[in-house]
């Protein structure tokens, strides 16, 4: 089905507000999910509305939460998402961090008692569009083990980064630290096909080609021991240093059972002029020029930016089934 | 040959001060190189003294440089290493960042016109020993391409991280973003043996098992496209946002030819109490307990910490050839 972005947002807002979510939160969530859909990230898009709405109805997420901000140190804000959705907390961060970064040189937001972080690229890009550099990490329901281990302790724990580049779109990096998304293993199980041996481990920590064994085990980190170490770093920053739940303490983001996930996210925003003086913008343009001059290289983030631009003009295509599900809520 | 740490430092100080390095810089370098050696990181240890001394003698590194600090924003310091060694700049950062982080909540040091960053783990660990969390990135002479490309534009661009854990050593992560160290390819060339096909690309961007073709090409990033994207992030932070040279503009760290490398490093130090309140230390202990309870998991950084402790007690073993080279300088 074809939808304009505005129509898609209205659809999401309606579905959420009928399931114990207030108007302001529903708007924030709708904007984020539709932007994800527009950027070609359907897995963090409209397909999530069902779980989001059911969790609000069940009270696993608080649809009436108002994120609370506390600034006890000049360059750091703590944001309590109050077990609501993550996006209103990110909106709050985006409303205060730029000014703090411009004044202090760097600013940090630590978000706790939060929820699904969605497409981090879209959050960091907001800062780059204001001329700032942003780094963001998030934890997530546990699906990866520490290297050599068998117990899921870390989420796929994404790292995202955005930097402004003069006269073109920001450079945006957004990557989960698992080798592949867990959704790919779930899809293989549904189709009854094997998975490559480097995607996941079984419950004994051995590589497996069996999708069912993989889902009972752990996802393989990208870059083996190094990816697992980075997932540990993200866990400490996004979970430990925010006062959030750790990945292994969090409940599922996909069903309405159990207590609130209570996940955490950390955002660090840097004023390039503070760290690098006045010439940074031109230097970044030069770096991007050097990288782009190599045939075969595609800049990270460009595909999503192109897709969003096209979606703004001509709307998005969404599977009828997904729309029907949202209408039924 | 067996040496105490003090004797090893004296050896390095003598060699450097005879090659146009002042006493204070020689001390700082000696401490860093001997600590690297003690941590089992010989590739960043005494083996480097020859190149360090020859570069000072040739003026490629300024052995008399005094790093200069500028603080125009409350939470950010810019450090000009003035084409000297990196370690005196890190010492300067370590002398000011803790207080800034305690006051502001977060502190950033941007180091430019710098040199070989050595073992980043040892630098970030200093902050963790003071109860702070530290994140550090560095660029390096270009050896990796952007994903899909053929031109070396990024260094192996390491990321390091340290966090304090109550009643035990800090948790320390330190990883280069190449799949393996370039030294491994150089060793294979010397022995005349093939390398695994996932270590490097030839000059056409194709995987190669030929060590000579690999050295003319680029190193493979850890975690493929994701590692290459992280290397780009590090390049922007450590090179672009500091006002340093980019990796592709830097000269070699191994010979005394050409202009100064002028590399960059960025350090971010977080006060855990500012971002996470009073309970962070106990939470991190709990995370480490959860990770360690999984048999087969070894915490990152532990091997180096154990090696250093042993070296403090009983000294280090260094190849006679390395000592002879240092004596000859």
From TrEMBL, chains A, B:
Q: Which InterPro entries match?
A: Mal/L-sulf/L-lact_DH-like_ah, Mal/L-sulf/L-lact_DH-like_NADP, Mal/L-sulfo/L-lacto_DH-like_sf, Malate/L-lactate_DH-like
Keyword annotations of the record? Oxidoreductase
Top EC category: oxidoreductase
Q: Domain of life here? A: Bacteria
Q: Does the keyword Oxidoreductase apply?
A: yes
Q: What are the EC numbers?
A: 1.1.1.82
Q: Name one GO molecular function term.
A: L-malate dehydrogenase (NADP+) activity
Q: Which family does it belong to?
A: Belongs to the LDH2/MDH2 oxidoreductase family.
Q: What's the protein called, per UniProt?
A: Malate/L-lactate dehydrogenase family protein
């Amino acid at each position: 089905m074809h939808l304009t972005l505005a129509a898609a947002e209205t659809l999401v807002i309606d579905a959420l507000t009928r399931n114990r979510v207030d108007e302001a939160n529903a708007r924030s969530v709708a904007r984020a999910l539709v932007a994800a859909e527009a950027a070609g990230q359907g897995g963090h898009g409209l397909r999530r509305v069902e779980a989001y709405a059911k969790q609000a109805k069940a009270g696993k997420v608080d649809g009436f939460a108002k994120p609370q901000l506390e600034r006890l140190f000049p360059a750091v804000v703590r944001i309590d998402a109050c077990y609501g959705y993550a996006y209103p907390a990110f909106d709050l961060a985006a409303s205060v961090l730029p000014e703090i970064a411009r004044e202090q040189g760097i600013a940090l937001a630590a978000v706790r008692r939060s929820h699904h972080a969605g497409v981090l690229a879209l959050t960091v890009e907001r800062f780059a569009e204001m001329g700032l550099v942003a780094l963001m990490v998030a934890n997530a329901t546990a699906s990866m083990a520490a290297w050599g281990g068998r117990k899921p302790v870390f989420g796929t724990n994404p790292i995202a980064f955005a930097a402004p580049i003069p006269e073109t779109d920001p450079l945006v990096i957004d990557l989960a630290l698992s080798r592949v998304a867990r959704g790919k293993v779930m899809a293989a199980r549904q189709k009854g096909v094997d998975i490559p041996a480097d995607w996941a481990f079984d419950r004994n920590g051995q590589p497996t080609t069996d999708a069912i064994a993989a889902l009972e085990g752990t996802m393989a980190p990208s870059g083996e021991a190094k990816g697992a170490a980075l997932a540990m770093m993200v866990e400490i920053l996004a979970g430990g240093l925010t006062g959030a739940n750790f990945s292994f303490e969090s409940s599922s983001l996909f069903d309405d059972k159990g207590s609130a996930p209570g996940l955490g996210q950390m955002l660090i925003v840097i004023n390039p002029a503070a760290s690098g003086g006045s010439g940074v913008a031109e230097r970044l343009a030069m770096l991007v020029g050097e990288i782009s001059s190599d045939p075969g290289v595609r800049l990270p983030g460009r595909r999503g930016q192109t897709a969003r631009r096209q979606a703004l003009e001509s709307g998005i295509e969404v599977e009828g089934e997904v729309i029907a599900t949202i209408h039924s809520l």
